[in-house]
Amino acid sequence: MQNRKLLLFIPFFLILACLVYLVLPAGQDGPTGSAQAREDRTPTCAVENQPVVTDPKTITVNAGEKIQAAIDAARPGDTILILPGTYNEGVVVKRNNITLRGQLDGTTRPILDGQKQIGNGVIACGDNFTIENLHIKNYQANGVVANGPDGVTMRNIFAEDTGEYGLFPVHSKNVLLENNIVTGSSDAALYVGQSENVVMRNNEAYGNVTGLEIENTSNALAENNYLHDNAGGLLVFILPDLARKETNNNQVRHNRIIGNNHENFGKPGSTVSRVPPGVGMVLLGPDHTEITGNEIRDNRSAALALVSLRIFFGDRNDFDVGTEPEGNRIYGNTLSHNAYDPHPAAKEFGFPAADIIWDGSGADNTFDQPDATTFPPMLPTSNWSPLVSNAYGKVLGVLRRFL
Is the pTM of this model over 0.85? Predict the structure, then answer.
């Protein structure tokens, strides 16, 4: 009887929401000011432009030799083949069309070990850069950084305790990360930032603050990744104060996002340090993200949260990016045993326990997950008209200010 009464009430509520929507001012998703630019601390290098050779060669590095010496001798188009052994160095690749390839001995990879004395394992800035078949560990800052290339491939790398990021392409185009395993990162294990045309597939991340992160990036696909035992499983973010101002047209599909309940050990004050442990996926202000076919289970705080950028930056009014999520589609995911014991950090945001959490922000967001527990208890679906959906979200936003 109570459910029947609730069903009768819903049409009246939606009509009321539409009426309220017509008299409320339109929400703003554009920049609200010129935010102060953040210092870019990403490692860089200057590209040495040389013609690609017509007779590419393979330069072999034996145990006890220096990988950097081989890189310095390589011409664009050459391959550096690294034989099994341990190499205690960090290397920089400044030329285009260079491949760093470890020679496998069964499943054993050559090891780059920074011994916690070196900042970065590999820094690359040349186009068409490939790195594969290596074990990279014990660096202070990052495992592999690709800053600026058009054409990046990172494949079959085991990155372990490499500082903030494991694999870190940024300001890049046409990126492929596949068949990698990353653990021990104090920010994101598999990260792509301020980039476009990205594929991240068949990777595993565990024991990190976040498993996989798409930040200020468009046209990215995250597919068939296994993200488990991190503080947060997968993030799609738009952040202020960066050179690229959008996170748009990304796909997250067929990933396994399981048991991400690790304590958050991110650097205090960093954005990622605010991610509550136990959330499978956080969508922070992105536009036109498709979330489908994912298995999201055993995450103690929530399966998925779609929220405004203002949730993480509640004390700030000045943004140089749109803050509200728009046009995101969440459907056809398998959700089970989430939100069973929300972490205290999750409770501080003021949301009750639920598989899917939405703060009512943005426009044209749809949730076709009929068996999920949700907050609010009713979410817009693809069957709702845009008018009703957006009115409902606006009313929810107003209510949250007073609750």
Answer: yes
